[in-house]
Amino acid sequence: MGRLEDAVEIRKQQLIHKLLKHHIYKKDGQQLYELTLSEIERVHSALYRKSS
């Protein structure tokens, strides 16, 4: 894998880990690991907007 792909995968795993801590496992019937980084970032952002 290239550096960009590695960086994307690392960021996805970081965000998924944070979402799992909040008991968020799926979005629209899809597991988090099936989503793109952009989709995971939207879920993450929505969580922190809601909790603010």
Automatic annotation (TrEMBL):
Q: Which Pfam family, an example, fits this chain? A: Fur_reg_FbpA
Show the InterPro entries listed in the entry.
Answer: Fur_reg_FbpA (IPR025072)
Q: What is this protein called?
A: Fur-regulated basic protein FbpA
- Write down the species: Alkalicoccobacillus murimartini
